[in-house]
Amino acid sequence: MIVKILWKSKTFRAVRYNTNKVEKNKGELVKVSGFGALEGLSEIKPQDYINYLSSLAARNKRVVYPQFHAMISPKGRSLGKEELVILAENWLKGMGYGNQPYLLIFHKDTSNNHIHMVSSRIDREGKKISDSYEKIRAYRVLNKLIGKDEKIDAEKALSRALQYRFSTPAQFLMILEKQGYAIALENGLYKISKFGEQLGSIDQSRLREHISTGKFSKDRRQQLKQIFEKYRTITDAHGYPIREKLPGGGQGRVLGYSSLLCEKLSSSFGLQFVFHYKNNKPPYGYTILDHSGKNVFKGSEFMALGKFMEMPSGAQAERIAGENPDIEIVSSQSHFAPNEEMLLSGPGMELNDSPGVNPDGLSLWDFSLDLDISDDVDDEQILGRNRRRQKKARTNTR
Q1: Which residue range or ranges hold the MobA/VirD2-like nuclease domain (predicted)?
Q2: What angle, 0 to 180 degrees and rounded to 10, lies between the N-to-C axes of helices 380-389 and 169-177?
Q3: Does residue 364 contact residue 289 with C-beta atoms inside 8 Å?
Q4: pTM, whole model, 2 decimals?
Q5: How far apart are CA 97 and CA 343, in angstroms?
């Protein structure tokens, strides 16, 4: 289940965006609430809604971006239109918008049902609806509504992570971080948090013991080496950057890297690739999360980065990017997720075939595929250095 606070706007352009979806039969206006006498009119135009919301915004000139636009999406068709309407109503109440004028628009133009909510951040008294920690509150409210217990989920995630074999604490942290958790080391205890709330912890000594006793399967190593060599010769290994999509169609910073070879190995064998890089420069290393075999490997153990991912440049890079538009385009509107089309269709690496499914049924969908991949998890030294720069707790002991 995804909830996302969408783009800021000085005007209420989200009304036009959503009504255009309705006109193209890609959406349906399912509820109009709080618009007073406007709701009694027989024929209402999009501009009427915009004018009404703008009149509220005019009561507080200090607020530069008065539009409130959010979206909730379950996976696939797990929730229907009526269920999403009820969920959206209750979510808006929990966020402080229950008495505000708002529009609910059900979208049906992707493989995931989803609903958009448009309202004003200014109430009828000219006061701004609180936006303090709203991205964190957005998930807290949603999780409460759907009965999801984040602490229980964190305990399960921690338990699953400890089933993996890894060589350094940094690799262990990567397993949890790819599921959206933040980890800080304080007084010998790794504290696990999400949405600004501590949800669990693990003692540093327990983690060290796990590292010292964990033994990697020689058979699995050999199997992966053979897989790499086989598919490297028959699948395009040219890497391409995944960039954020800026307003107006421009492209921003690099959020990650991938290749057709990565996608093939991910979908067929349950491997997730994390490339380590600095700023917009090409990767300098990579790590493999082997979800099927429950291992974390340094990529160089199997194939040198230069061989595994031949980084193109110039026209060749543009050609490869153009051939993979669904992977290339990523939204810059939220740190947590790609753009709406990618976000709602789900990652293309979900493990449906038996070779890529863990014995306990865990698929790559259960792991956060946030494309804002950090470059600080290649080894313990780099991890500690970058965390100090970001004023985060150290995770290395050097």
Answers
A1: 17-145
A2: 60
A3: no
A4: 0.62
A5: 25
The identity of residue 3, as a single letter, is V
Structure tokens belonging to residue 139:
């998930």
Helix crossing, 150-161 with 169-177: angle to 10°?
140
pLDDT digits (tens, 9 = 90+) for 119-150: 999 999 999 999 999 998 999 999 999 988 88
Q: What is the DSSP string of 204-270?
A: HHHHHHHHHH----HHHHHHHHHHHHHHHTTS--B-EEEEEEPTTS-EEEEEEEE-HHHHHHHHHH-
CB-based contact 146:160 (threshold 8 Å): no
- Residue 177 backbone zone (phi > 0: left; psi -120 to 50: alpha; other: beta): alpha
Q: How many CB atoms lie within 10 A of CB 35?
A: 17
CB burial of residue 161 (10 Å; 0-12, 13-18, 19+): buried
Q: What is the DSSP letter of 127?
A: P
Quote the CA–CA distance of 245 and 327 in Å, as a whole number.
11
- Assigned domain for 185 exists: no
What is the pLDDT, as a whole number, of residue 246? Answer: 66
End position of a domain, from candidates 145, 177, 203: 145
Count of domains observed in the chain: 2
* Rg of the chain in Å (alpha carbons): 23
- ∠ CA 166-167-172, nearest 5°, is 50
- The partner residues of 245 in beta bridges, in order of sequence, read 251, 331
* Residues of the chain where predicted confidence (pLDDT) is lower than 70: 246-249, 311-398
> What is the Cα–Cα distance from 244 to 256, expressed in whole angstroms?
9
User: Domain boundary at 112, 129, 145, which?
Assistant: 145
Closest CA relative to residue 274, chosen from 361, 173, 396: 173
Please write the tens of the pLDDT for every residue from 183-195: 999 999 999 998 7
Q: In residues, how long is the chain?
A: 398
d(CA 258, CA 239): 6
In this predicted model, what pLDDT tens digit does every residue of 251-302 receive, in sequence order?
788 888 999 999 999 999 999 999 999 888 889 999 999 999 999 999 999 9
